[in-house]
Amino acid sequence: MYFIQPSRQINHLEDVLRALPEVQQVKIDDLIKCDATIIAIADVHDYLNLKWSFPTIVLAHEFEGEALSRAWRQGALAGWIWNDLPQEMEKAIKKIDAQYKRNQDSRDLPSAAELQKRLLPNEIDIPNHQIETFFQPSAYLSGDWYDYWHVNDDEVLFYLADVSGHGVTSSLLTSWMAAFHARATTPEMLIHKLNRMLLQENIEKHITMIAGLLNHKQHRIRWCSAGHYPPAIVLQPNQPTQILNTSSFPLGLTEELEIESFELSLSPKSRFVICSDGALEPFSGGLNEQFEQLVRQLEKNEFQPPDHVADDIAILSICRTK
Known about the structure:
Blueprint: E1 2-4, H1 13-19, E2 24-26, E3 40-43, H2 44-50, E4 56-60, H3 65-74, E5 78-81, H4 89-118, E6 129-136, E7 144-150, E8 155-163, H5 168-180, H6 187-201, E9 207-215, E10 220-226, E11 232-235, E12 242-244, E13 261-265, E14 271-275, H7 287-299, E15 313-320
Parallel strand pairs: 1-2, 1-3, 3-4, 4-5
Antiparallel strand pairs: 6-15, 7-8, 8-9, 9-10, 10-13, 11-12, 11-14, 14-15
């Protein structure tokens, strides 16, 4: 922490310096050398006149209320009186510092959210097929994620995952998955590798996931689920909707993870749809009722999420175009 030596005469200066915890005294001429992320304590007049940008607690005389008000409008973290300092100075400074860091984290969230969105996959060309996606975080950062990539000339590997909980840790795991996936060439390999890594790193999170492999020459999908809800859905023209229920554990709970694989053929104009449980939020009732309403809207291609949601929403659809 810095103490900026005041440019005017202060009668109580020595008392203030004795009351402060260990600080680095800095002359005004040396402000350019200061770390802009470290809190400074300075005279209110110097702060107003020089308009520096690093976080500052200002000190004023008891009759300088108007100057304190201007300093707050200029961005000062707090204002104290030269001859009436807080009794527990160190505790007061730590509280202000903690609040400042929380505010800085909040300001960084929009940039972090933009970076996270840039990790989402770009569109890829798949003969006679198309991947459609929807992504809406409940806050700045999301614990839901999807990805897809070419494994070879004939196959595309894809997944949709939902990390337990919310916040920065859950969103970091989505970035971790995005960096990790290139080592996998089958859905089974992807799920087992992610499960082992979660257990090895002892991260107190679990992940549900549906992963699959599209062979676009054969119009076939081999897929498996790791404890994911809602189940996968197959929508096909003039045919009843298929609900592909499975039973399995999420990732990160047990080393003995048993994953069953399934296969299906996509008929022309049909869609294989997977989504996170946030897609159920717009609907009322229990899980079954919410899921039935979701399916009806997907059948009509009418799904419209609310502007503000309490849970992240991610949807990935694989459509056979011909």
